[in-house]
Amino acid sequence: MASPVEQFAIKTIVPLEVAGHNVSFTNSSLVMVLVVGVMSLFLIGGMRQAAIVPGRWQAAVESVYAFIADLCEQNIGHGDGRKYFPFILALFLFILGCNLAGMIPFSFTVTSHIAVTFAFAAFVFLLCIVMGIARNGLHFFTKFAPPGVPFVLLPLLVLIEIVAFLARPITLSVRLFANMTAGHILLKVFAGFVVSLGAAGGALALISPLPLVAIVAFTALELLIAGLQAFIFAVLTSIYLGDCLHIEH
Amino acid sequence: MKQPPDHGRLDQLDARLKTLQTEDEKLDAQANGAALGRGLSVAVELVAAVVVGAFIGWFLDQWLGTKPWLVILFCLLGGVAGFLNIYRSAMRIADEADRTAAREQAGAAGNDETKR
Prior knowledge:
Mean pLDDT of chain A: 86
Distance between the termini of chain B: 24 Å
Shape of chain B: rod-shaped
Distance between the termini of chain A: 59 Å
Number of strands of chain A: 4
Radius of gyration of chain A: 22 Å
Helix content of chain B: over 70%
Strand content of chain B: under 5%
Mean pLDDT of chain B: 77
Order of helices and strands of chain A: EEEEHHHHHHH
Oligomer: heterodimer
Number of strands of chain B: 0
Largest sheet of chain A: 2 strands, antiparallel
Shape of chain A: globular
């Protein structure tokens, strides 16, 4: 029986090497390129006519746009939401596209690789620090010293705040990666049950449709998770950005 | 009345009504989704903070030659930091719930007026 983690294997399509580094075009790159293409088509195609009374496609694009615009305004806020809106929208659509592309049979789940999700999270983390310092100067670092704390406890609290801050890119990347990986392994394992129960024969073969029913339910759940995780990534990115731009004290 | 209905204006009115309705629903859905997602992510939050703490402690131990002590200290600090992150996201969810509740009240008052 096929291993449930075989689906995550990276396969080289076009071997390529630049300065001793392996930069081959793989099945992962292929899915990413396709997702960028489909999402661009979705946005550009929907706004091609830009009618006052939107058709279905345009209404879909507009609702995604308004949804993310709301999210930016609420979580980054203070008039900064607009500036980061293109970034958050692109991030959301790309992650959503990758998650959904993984749900297509024989496809590849890009976001089930921590290398990919951590690259996103690390970029968001660095962006937060750079923009935070650019906006607040050295005042940015008072973020780590909560106000109204007794002098004796201050060093301890600063250490805790720093660890909490450094944990952010880890939680951001591990959450997405773990959700996608676990979900897809679950689907594969249950699919394996259908085959092995059927092959066992007798009474066991009779109950082999049960895991199949479970797979249908899990697929629906996975679709929910695909959307939810993309949304959470976008929300947390905007919360972290807002947090670093506006130091409260 | 046998007047032909003015389709253009009717459609516009329809669209406006729909956006007003869906905006309310969308805010609800957004708040629910966010709460669900963050509820699910509590475990990740705690584990990640401890791991980051342990890593920092291990690194500092290597550097300063204080073998086991800083790992122990930073694991504990990581646990506290994890709880701090969880506490903050819980506060944020509560904040958002308050805000949506306030908006719903304002919305309900507005709807009553338009219905009359």
